Automatic annotation (TrEMBL):
Keywords: Membrane, Transmembrane, Transmembrane helix. Coiled coil: none annotated. The chain crosses the membrane at residues 6-28, 40-63, 99-122, 134-161, 195-214, 221-242, 262-283. Pfam families: Fung_rhodopsin (PF20684). This is Rhodopsin domain-containing protein. It is found in: Membrane. GO terms for cellular component: membrane. Its main location: membrane. The lineage of its organism: Eukaryota, Fungi, Dikarya, Ascomycota, Pezizomycotina.
Length: 378
């Protein structure tokens, strides 16, 4: 299978990279909750089983790759007939079908936990007792129930795709064709419904975000955080297309391991991206504080450089006239980020300097420039 992008090296890379990145984002999520003293809720705890199942999927792919079942062509049967592959039962083929069978079960539950986590996150920030009668509250509740039923139904259904004898799922193709007749509709229905629900869930909060009383720029930034999930949706769409292509006539070619490898490759990507994306919105406080400090510093620089208020007028009079007396050594400012008047140490310092005849206009100007440099550096 060297002709494909799903090479053994690529499979090993994503099977190691995504669990590591997922672990880091989940740790940062819980760390952020602790730093902000936020109460851990259902959406936080659901990330743990999703991450654990991602590790199981990664282990399956690593096992298949290191044993020659994934990323390469299966051994050709000794029988030269074109349809001999139907009766082939090499160790690599049996292992490949075992991996596919277990991976289908694991990913149903992993995707279910991921979807429920993001839905509960939506409800934690957009829903309350006051919003019980709103459409968003009702839609998210219905989606939560739907995802729960979907997870249980397909999670159990994939176990019994071959009836009461799961061992038939990794038999020869001839056995699978006759004993696993419900495999095609179950797995194909699972892939299509998974993609449709992903689209609905990730687009669900966008209208709500647009109604928030924040600037358009902030709305776009917040919306982009959720739209990062489009990467996971793209992986889901690719996986769905491969499922459909594989199951339209699944036993018509002897190179079926190529499609199975493609399928597991994109399944790993979707699972890995899902865990990462559901944690991104929760990490916003980590960089929100920096953005707030930047906004505050910009506002301070604006007050100093464009004197239009009473405070800036006092500064201008002090610097130009060298006042020897002042009614107050401190000038009150109103910070937009904190209610009530506060005292600006920098302004108070300039005003107190103006009380002494030896303080000239040049010294005041130098002091103001030093303060601006400190603001820029902070």
């Amino acid at each position: 299978m060297s002709r494909t992008y799903a090479t053994p090296a690529a499979i090993i890379t994503i099977s190691i990279l995504f669990p590591v990145l997922g672990t880091l984002t989940v740790i940062l999520r819980f760390y952020t909750r602790r730093k902000t003293k936020s109460v851990l809720w259902i959406d936080d705890w659901l990330t743990l089983p999703a991450l654990g199942l991602e590790y199981v999927l990664a282990a399956l792919l690593l096992w298949g790759t290191t044993t020659g079942s994934l990323g390469g062509l299966l051994p050709q049967p000794d029988d030269p007939r074109p349809d001999a592959y139907i009766f082939s039962n090499s160790d690599q083929q049996i292992r490949l079908l075992q991996i596919q069978y277990v991976a289908d079960i694991v990913t149903v539950w992993a995707f279910g936990f991921t979807k429920l986590s993001i839905l509960y996150f939506y409800r934690s920030i957009f829903c309350s007792r006051r919003t019980i009668r709103t459409a968003f509250h009702s839609v998210t509740m219905c989606m939560t129930v739907l995802v729960s039923v979907w997870t249980v139904a397909f999670g159990v259904g994939t176990i019994f795709i071959c009836g009461a004898h799961p061992v038939n799922a990794w038999g020869t193709i001839a056995v699978v064709t006759t004993e696993c007749t419900v495999q095609v509709p179950i797995v194909e229905g699972y892939a299509i419904s998974d993609f449709i629900m992903d689209v609905i869930i990730w687009l669900l909060p966008l209208p709500r975000i647009w109604l928030l009383n924040i600037s358009v720029r902030q709305k776009m930034a917040l919306g982009l955080v959720f739209l990062v999930g489009l990467l996971a949706i793209a992986a889901s769409a690719t996986r769905m297309a491969i499922y459909i292509a594989h199951h339209i006539n699944p036993f018509a070619q002897s190179d079926g391991e190529t499609l199975v490898t493609y399928l597991l490759f994109w399944t790993m990507i979707e699972c890995g991206l899902g865990v990462i994306v559901i944690c991104l919105p929760s990490l916003r406080p980590m960089y929100k504080k920096r953005e707030l400090n930047s906004l505050i510093n910009s506002f301070k620089r604006y007050l100093y450089r464009i004197p239009t208020s009473t405070t800036s007028s006092a500064l201008r009079n002090n610097s130009l006239n060298g006042l020897t007396n002042s009614n107050s050594s401190n000038v009150n400012l109103v910070r937009p980020w904190h209610p009530g008047p506060t005292t600006s140490p920098a302004v108070g310092h300039n005003a107190s300097m103006a009380q002494h005849p030896s303080n000239t206009e040049q010294r005041i100007q130098v002091t103001r420039e030093i303060e601006l440099i400190r603001l820029d550096s902070s």
